[in-house]
């Protein structure tokens, strides 16, 4: 199991494209993703107004100089495992904090007990978490972290 | 001479044989887990000087062709009823056969990036050694409890009493040309089975230990593995979906089936026909 590299936690708000970035007012959504101590854990803090976020969390892997979707599924903005269906989007109130259940490092059994056929751990490397606004216009990324084999 | 496989070079090796772990009850779930199978495939490509090997790809293709997934729940007393959940028959599971990848629509196994395939590079000198390796550890999870009302949301609490899972796979070592033509070199069949009966030692606290009895005889809790077979699988139950673009995606099928199993309920401890 890999571990996070301990470091100063800096929020990265990445825009999906220059046009989208220009369209965002200065007071737009500003969500900070801070890595936690244990592998796969992180916290969201909403530094801006209330925002609707997609429940599904993306995991991206650094490949060369860029970031690629690591194809992780069943990883959501939920603080507890539940058998209830996860809504497509959630609202994060202004100033609110959310601590999702950690990523376990797998493709399919990513967070909570789930039934998978093919699964497996992702390879060692540099990763980051990405959450997106419900309308898809903004995304917020965590600082990169290392996963060991 | 066109680019081709060196005669006698394809090998499919079982690096680690799969095994099943005894069922466990923990964290509100009944868990069937296995220790991973690891398969490694190799072959060599040859060609004439000047032939371009770029894009030739060696990988593994995995088909699931038998699924058994049912669970029987019953209340603490006869009057609390019972529920049978069937996740391996329509409509919960529309079809048995599927292709097993992380990415829906993918053909080659893709859960071991950097090692699950070899893509030949332009200018590589012949013969070219190609390898592909992956591991797979199927598992299954059932909730320990389910309410006896519609959808499991209301009514008396029922406790999982019996469950069975069987998953049968065929894994194919295959070479794909840059034009997308597949040459199936070797294949192997393997499976995992779990079956058991379960009883809480404390109905008021399902986190207390459960009494777990493995059932099904010699085939109830086991892992099987065939010999390595030359060429492509010929079984008509899944030979048609080895590479077809529209093949059902196993992870999607199992997620949907287990999230919305076929449900039969009774007001008493009923005997259900687990075949349907």
Can you put this structure into words, describing what you see?
The complex is a heterodimer of chains A (149) and B (276). Chain A has one helix at 18-23; strands spanning 12-15, 31-35, 42-46, 51-54, 58-63, 66-69, 89-92, 97-98, 125-132, 138-141, 145-147. Chain A is mainly β. The radius of gyration of chain A is 15 Å and the shape is globular. Chain B has 276 residues and is mainly beta. Chain B is built from one helix and 20 strands. In chain B, the strands form four sheets. In chain B, strands 8, 9, 10, 11, 14, 15, 16, 17, 18, 19 and 20 form an eleven-stranded antiparallel β-sheet that branches. In chain B, strands 1, 2, 7 and 12 form a four-stranded antiparallel β-sheet that branches. Chains A and B meet through loops of A and strand 12, strand 13 and helix 1 of B.
Give the topology.
The complex is a heterodimer of chains A (about 150) and B (about 280).
Chain A: E1 12-15, H1 18-23, E2 31-35, E3 42-46, E4 51-54, E5 58-63, E6 66-69, E7 89-92, E8 97-98, E9 125-132, E10 138-141, E11 145-147
Antiparallel strand pairs in A: 1-10, 2-3, 3-8, 4-7, 5-6, 5-9, 9-10, 9-11
Chain B: E1 4-5, E2 11-16, E3 19-20, E4 24-26, E5 29-32, E6 34-35, E7 37-46, E8 57-75, E9 82-86, E10 98-99, E11 117-119, E12 128-136, E13 140-143, E14 145-147, E15 157-176, E16 182-200, E17 210-214, E18 222-225, E19 229-230, H1 250-259, E20 262-266
């Amino acid at each position: 199991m890999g571990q996070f590299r301990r470091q100063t936690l800096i929020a990265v708000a990445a825009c999906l494209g220059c046009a989208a970035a220009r369209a965002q007012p200065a007071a737009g959504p500003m969500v900070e993703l801070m890595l936690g101590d244990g592998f796969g854990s992180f916290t969201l803090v909403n530094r801006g107004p209330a925002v609707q976020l997609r429940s599904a969390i993306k995991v991206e892997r650094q490949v060369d100089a860029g970031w690629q979707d690591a194809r992780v599924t069943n990883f959501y903005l939920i603080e507890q495992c539940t058998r209830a269906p996860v809504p497509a989007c959630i609202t994060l109130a202004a100033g609110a904090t959310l601590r999702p259940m950690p990523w376990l490092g797998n493709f399919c059994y990513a967070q909570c007990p789930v039934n998978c056929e093919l699964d497996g751990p992702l390879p060692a490397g540099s990763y980051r978490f990405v959450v997106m606004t419900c309308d898809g216009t903004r995304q917020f990324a965590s600082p990169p972290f290392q996963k060991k084999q | 001479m066109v680019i081709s496989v060196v005669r006698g070079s394809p090998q499919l090796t079982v690096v680690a044989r799969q095994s099943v772990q005894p069922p466990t009850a923990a964290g509100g779930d009944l868990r069937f887990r296995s220790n991973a199978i690891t398969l490694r495939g190799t072959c060599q490509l040859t060609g004439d000087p000047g032939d371009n090997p770029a894009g030739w790809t060696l990988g593994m293709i995995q088909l699931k062709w038998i699924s058994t997934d049912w669970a029987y729940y019953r209340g603490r007393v006869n009057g609390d009823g019972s529920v049978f959940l069937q996740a391996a028959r329509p409509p919960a599971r529309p079809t048995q056969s599927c292709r097993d990848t992380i990415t829906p629509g993918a053909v080659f196994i893709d859960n071991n990036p950097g090692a699950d395939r070899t893509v030949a590079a332009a200018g590589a000198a012949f013969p070219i050694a190609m390898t592909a390796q992956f591991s797979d550890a199927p598992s299954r999870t059932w909730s320990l409890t389910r309410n006896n009302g519609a959808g499991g949301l209301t009514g008396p609490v029922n406790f999982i009493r019996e469950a069975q899972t069987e998953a049968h796979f065929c894994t194919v070592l295959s070479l794909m040309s840059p034009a997308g033509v597949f040459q199936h070199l070797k294949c192997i069949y393997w499976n995992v089975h779990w079956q058991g009966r379960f009883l809480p030692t404390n109905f008021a606290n399902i986190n207390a230990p459960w009494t777990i009895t493995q059932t099904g005889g010699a085939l109830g809790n086991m892992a099987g593995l065939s010999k390595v077979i030359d060429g492509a699988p010929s079984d008509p139950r899944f030979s048609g979906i080895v590479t077809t673009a529209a093949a059902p995606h196993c992870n999607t099928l199992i997620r949907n089936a287990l999230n919305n199993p076929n449900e039969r309920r009774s007001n008493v401890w009923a005997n259900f026909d687990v075949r349907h």
